[in-house]
Amino acid sequence: MQRLYSSRDNTKTKMPPLPLLAASLVLLIFSVSPASSCTQEEKTALLQFLDGLSQDSGLATSWRNHTNCCMWEGIACNEDGNVTDISLASMGLVGSISPSLGNLTRLLSLNLSGNLLSGGLPPELLLSRSIIVLDVSFNKLNGDLHNLPSTPDRAIKVIDISSNLFTGYFPSTTLESMKNLASLNMSNNSFAGNMLSVVCVDKPFFVVLDLSYNQFYGSIPPELGNCSSLRMLRAGQNNLSGTLPAELFNITSLEHLSFPNNRLQGKLAPKHVARLRNLVILDLGGNELIGKIPNSIGQLKRLEELHLDSNNMSGELPPALSKCTSLTTIILKDNRFQGELTNVNFSALSNLKFFDVKSNKLTGTVPENIYSCSNLTALRLSYNGFHGQLSPRISNLKFLRFLGLSHNNFSNITNTLQILSSSKALYALSIGGNFRHEVMPDYDIFHGFENLMGLAINDCSLYGNLPSWLSKLKNLKMLLLENNQLSGPIPAWIKSLNSLFYLDISNNSLTGDIPTALMEMPMLKTAHSNPIIIQLSIYISPLRQYRTPSSVPKMLNLGNNKLTGVIPQEIGQLKGLLSLNLSFNNLYGEIPQSIANITNLQVLDLSHNNLTGAIPYALGKLHFLSKFNISNNDMEGPVPTGGQFSTFPDSSFVGNPKLCGPTLMRYCNSAHAAPVSIISTEQYIDKVIFAIAFGMFFGVGVLYDQMVLSRYIYFGQRYLNWNSTRAQQMNWALSLGWHGFR
């Protein structure tokens, strides 16, 4: 699975110093103790807000037991008893936001983020002449934001409406009257239309604009070049097209420029790139850019993160990259870069933590100076043309957690494993697609890989047996050895891998029976309705440790070997399995009824064996089964009807001439056959069409965790959060079972 990142733009970077004005505001809001009670009008406004909540998490107890609302939970007042701050973040509030809050004429800061509030955003809040900070992010607010009258003297500086359900067009006339606006975060909604072009007009303090994760389309407006104070511009995960306008590079104050996953085209002009001397994060990945990385990139001395992945860029990596000595992250995967890595002086990049050039056309040997990057956490060189043997100097990388070298032309697997086994920090290792036709090494005594969770040595055509040293990897969760030429039986020590839940040893030459030891694997016996979430800790900066989740199903794949015997009845003990593949072997006997005990099973492939008998009707209880294949066996009798069996194609049953039933359009007339409902061809076709439509709408799929975006708050307790959103994306790994890791 080559997917290293699960979403973009969430990585911590250095936080700019809080402006003096903001610091003064913080003192004003949070340091003043009220000398008198709030007014009846303000108390009424707050109680009306409370009445609009269907769930207040005990807030009513605090608010109704005190007559002075300045003493209520989440409320702060100034010395005159005026409500100046409402801070009710992450309290589990459910309901709507009452327009009555707009009646608080001295309110400076309103923070309702991280709740379950729904309905629209009252226009009274945006029309307020007192509110400076408005944060309603991470709720379920919805609907359109309507045009508001252009009124002067709006004080608002920070608007954060991110991670809600807003739709429609953002009203430009509403922005025009917000002369003091400094930060606008409307990311992770469903806003549409063209990008805002007038957002910076008459706004000398405007520094943050985040439009990412919406449905904006069209080109990037050149008018953005007028945002002379802008420091952060993010509009990734939209449908933007065209080229990066030259005017955009006039914003020399930019520190974060992020447009990933759009449809932007063109080249990076050297003279344009050189203007952005203050750039800390450049993220243009997932577009349609062409051309080379310009040498002028070396003039960006503050650059910490460079993301140009998944484009059509080519040429050699410029030596000037070595001049960007602050770089911590270089992600260039899925392009057409060529040449050797020796162009880059890695000795100068002592801060480098993440380096990913997967799926390019790079050649040569791995340069020795890359091992001088002692802070490397993740290194991926997979799917290139590197050759030679691994250097012992890789042991210098004491913090290396993810190493991907797969599908190159490396040799000497024995030497490679001996060198890497001492890497105590290593969590995930992918070295498949190398060492072709070598022998899988085994050792009488083996120590190492103490923390290894994922190991992929697939696609190597290795000879030998399943090596006993694997039994020493007590933390191993995922093992991929498919597409080799390993032989011999599956060893009994497999049950000693107490953490293993993903095993793929398909496409080998393994022999013997399916051992009952496989049925004793603890993680596969534990029922779990969802894929396992692996938490992989990655330190991106001293400020924060991110834990990045990767979803992986419990799987056992023994397909395409030379296994014999019957399918053990004990297989029903593996109640945690979501996928079971025993296809293309020499198994015989009946399908065990006990498979019906694996109630969360989604994939069952028993095709191309010598299985006999009837299809157990108990399999109809597998309500999550989305793929079923028993083709090319010697099964007989009726195919069960109803349930998931109504959704499987004919190809799931072909090559079994003794099977019958309406699914196969071959009716069961035998007196010994179990009764099957007989329907006309026309009725059958109607049912199949309905089943397909139903399956498409309600089909079983893997749920992916939504990666929410970081928020940028300019004032108060949460300052401007100069995040690149890269850390929650750095799924450096353990999605070994999917195409991203390999």
TrEMBL record:
Signal peptide interval: 1-37
Record bears the keyword Iron: no
Location of the protein in the cell: Cell membrane
Top-level taxon of origin: Eukaryota
Principal location class: membrane
Domain Leucine-rich repeat-containing N-terminal plant-type as annotated: residue spans: 40-78
Record SMART domains: LRR_TYP
Membrane topology according to the record: Single-pass type I membrane protein
Keywords attached to this entry: Cell membrane, Glycoprotein, Leucine-rich repeat, Membrane, Receptor, Repeat, Signal, Transmembrane, Transmembrane helix
Keyword field contains Repeat: yes
Cross-referenced InterPro entries: Leu-rich_rpt (IPR001611), Leu-rich_rpt_typical-subtyp (IPR003591), LRR_dom_sf (IPR032675), LRR_N_plant-typ (IPR013210)
Record family assignment: Belongs to the RLP family.
Protein name: Leucine-rich repeat-containing N-terminal plant-type domain-containing protein
Organism of derivation: Eragrostis curvula (weeping love grass)
